[in-house]
Design brief:
mainly alpha, three-stranded antiparallel beta sheet, about 150 residues, about 5% strand, single chain, 2 domains, about 65% helix
C-alpha cells in the first residue's frame, strides 16, 4: 500500500515480524482485535505506531525516525488526499485482509460489519476478567462476614 504526499512517499509493507512487533507495541496478543479496537476508538497513537512500524521507503528502509514525523505525515496525507483518520484505517484494513494478516480472510462486507460493530472496540476478555475479580472479591467478603458472625 502506497501513501504519498508532495513531500514523502511511503510503502506500507506488512510482514509477520512486523505484525508481531506492533502487537507487542500495542500490548496485545491478537493483531486483528487490536487493529479493529484501535480503529473503532479512533486511536491516533495506535494509527501512528502502525504506520511507523509498516512504513518503508523505496529502498526498503524505515521511513520515519520518530512518531512526530508520522503525525506530520498523517496530517499532510489527510489534507492533500481529502482523507479522514477513519479512511486511512479502512484502507489499511482492506490491504491487511487481502494479504492474509487477519485470522481469516474476510469479504468486504465482513470487514465493513467488523468496522461498524461497536463491540469490536470493546476488550471482552478484560471485562470478563474484571467482572470475575469483582465477583470473587464480593464472595470472599461475604464468607469472611459469615465467619466472623458465628
Amino acid at each position: 500500500m502506497i501513501l504519498e504526499t508532495k513531500n514523502k512517499k511511503i510503502k506500507l509493507v506488512f510482514t509477520t515480524k512486523k505484525i508481531v512487533n506492533i502487537s507487542n507495541l500495542l500490548k496485545g496478543k491478537d493483531f486483528e482485535d487490536l487493529y479493529f479496537q484501535s480503529m473503532n476508538e479512533n486511536d491516533l497513537d495506535a494509527l501512528s505506531k502502525i504506520i511507523f512500524t509498516f512504513a518503508e521507503d523505496e529502498a526498503g528502509l524505515k521511513s520515519f525516525k520518530s512518531s512526530e514525523e508520522v503525525y506530520d505525515f498523517i496530517d499532510d496525507y489527510k489534507k492533500e488526499n481529502n482523507k479522514t483518520y477513519q479512511d486511512i484505517f479502512n484502507e489499511m484494513a482492506g490491504i491487511i485482509n487481502d494479504e492474509g494478516f487477519f485470522k481469516n480472510k474476510m469479504s468486504k462486507k465482513q470487514i465493513q460489519d467488523k468496522i461498524l460493530n461497536p463491540l469490536s472496540g470493546i476488550n471482552m476478555n478484560e471485562i470478563i476478567k474484571l467482572s470475575t475479580e469483582k465477583a470473587i472479591t464480593k464472595m470472599t467478603q461475604d464468607e469472611v462476614l459469615k465467619g466472623s458472625m458465628t
